[in-house]
């Protein structure tokens, strides 16, 4: 007979008006107990007892719907519902971290790096991961970490890791993280290089420690920089391994977001998605353009040439039109 250990820690999502009772029950992540859901338990499976450290988090419901190329992630709280669309391969990479964290009680790799163009949903993905796991979250930003006083920046970074360790299981989020993961120091003053070297050393040692001890802590970085600009020593197994690239949205993703957030324009979604894609718009751009379109009735789009979009994309319905086919054939034959 297989023995089941007592849960050291359990994170439970409960409605604000529900109090989770002390009880003896065997749990695994995502199991329902009344109106509550266990989002994390360590070790897993385990038995919740009165001695288990119970942490209550906001009841956020995450639903993932798979399509041919994309996934739609629906995030529901007591206040609102949000929709996000990502390429399927991006969610598969992220899920490897989440599934390992929930089933083993610690992530396979102690850190994750999300990279890609601005406005593609990297920051939103960090929030989705936090909501999905329901863990204690520590956010680290340059404006609250970097200091002009000698030694203070390093002290603040250590404090952030201490906070995560004292409240584990937890997440440490570095949004707009190029200031800490970029290999380049060309834009920094020579006098500040020593500080950044120290901070990078602290960062790597802490991530190494979490990996070696199998700590229930995941550090996540999000940045717009290219993979070749990331400090090489971070992107190896035992640290962050390979970065997860979040690209500009495809036609199906844009169309689906328009239909979800702007149902009054659903009849135009195919045409709008084609225009927005060919103009190199990120998902953040799509939301801004569509809000302005709803407000003014005018479609105002600026082509984002710097994002490398020089191709012509036609929606499947348009591309299948015989008149369009004949027109494109004439162009090719000229």
What does this structure look like?
The chain has about 325 residues and is an alpha/beta fold. The chain contains eleven helices and 15 strands. It has helices at about 90-105, 120-135, 140-145, 150-165, 180, 190-210, 250-260, 270-280, 285-295, 315-320, 320-334; strands spanning about 5, 10-15, 25, 30-35, 35-40, 45-50, 55, 60-65, 70-75, 80-85, 110-115, 135-140, 170-175, 215-225, 245. A five-stranded parallel beta sheet has the order 12-13-14-11-15, with helices on both faces. Helix 7 crosses helix 8. The longest helix is centred in the middle third of the chain and has 23 residues, at about 190-210. The N and C termini lie far apart (about 75 Å).
Any chance you could write out the topology, listing elements then pairs?
Layout (H helix, E strand, L loop, with lengths): L4 E2 L2 E5 L11 E3 L4 E2 L2 E7 L3 E3 L4 E5 L3 E6 L3 E7 L4 E7 H17 L6 E5 L6 H12 L2 E4 L2 H4 L6 H15 L3 E5 L3 H4 L8 H23 L4 E7 L20 E2 L5 H11 L7 H10 L4 H14 L19 H4 L2 H12 L1
Parallel strand pairs: 1-6, 2-7, 11-14, 11-15, 12-13, 13-14
Antiparallel strand pairs: 2-5, 3-6, 4-5, 8-9, 9-10
Order of helices and strands: EEEEEEEEEEHEHEHHEHHEEHHHHH
Total of helices:
11
Report the average pLDDT across residues.
85
From the alpha-carbon coordinates, what is the Rg to the nearest angstrom? 23 Å
Question: What proportion of the residues is helical, as a percent range?
Answer: 25-40%
The tally of beta strands, per DSSP, is 15
Biggest β-sheet strands, sense, barrel: 5 strands, parallel
Envelope shape: globular
Give the amount of beta strand, in percent: 15-25%
Strand order of the largest sheet: 12-13-14-11-15
Low-confidence stretches: 186-191
Structural class based on helices, strands and sheet pairing: alpha/beta
Cα end-to-end separation: 76 Å
